[in-house]
Please model this.
Amino acid sequence: ATPPLRSATPPLLSTHNTACPSCASGLGLVDADMTDSGYGRVVRSWKRGTPLSEAKVVFEAEQADIAGAQFSFHDRGLVHEFQMRSVTFYTSKYWYRCLTPERVATVSGADEDKPFKEG
Model:
């Protein structure tokens, strides 16, 4: 049987919630974390058991964007990570990086200057 997919990277706290942008207020976020459209624009790397206030910023979309998000998936032994800026409802910009599971355990986007490549 195929094991379930799960991220080997630290959990990412993203306020991107298309169903309910105001739901992010329960996370204690401030207006600066939100786009002008009311969606999340800041992605943080958070470690379980630590306060949310200690989560490092990994990615930020522009204030005027619709939203910003980061996500990853595992495929054939590789981890594919994407960062996304929804510039408008019809256009988006993506950044990508591919890591081996071993590399995922030793690297964090919060600790690198430019780990992602624009795509």
Summary: The chain has one helix and seven strands. Residues 101-104 form the longest helix (4 residues). The longest strand covers residues 67-75. The helical segments are 101-104.
